[in-house]
Amino acid sequence: MPAKRISMRKTKEVLRLRLEARLSIRKISIGNIQKLLSQSNTLEIVWPLPEDLNDGRLAAMFYPGFDSVSSSRYKVPDWIALLRSGSGVVPSFGE
Length: 95
Known about the structure:
By secondary structure, the protein is mainly α. It has a domain at 8-68. It is built from five helices and no strands. Helix 1 (8-19) packs across helix 3 (33-42). The longest helix is centred in the first third of the chain and has 12 residues, at 8-19.
């Protein structure tokens, strides 16, 4: 069973804490963090990350075989188009 994927934001923060702030693994270790840091050593990742190493490439390095395209789960819908379509969808803004 493959490990649950960690977001790239969290991955970058862990790498920064370990490689730039020089925190021990024990100080930043929770869940699969030790595995991630061990894998970063194997991949010879440095901090700061190279500018050409975008989230997609970083994800492909850590999670080969997974789709490295950003999730569309958090894209904001086109509310105007939905309202004009008469679909009955009404936006809720955290009432």
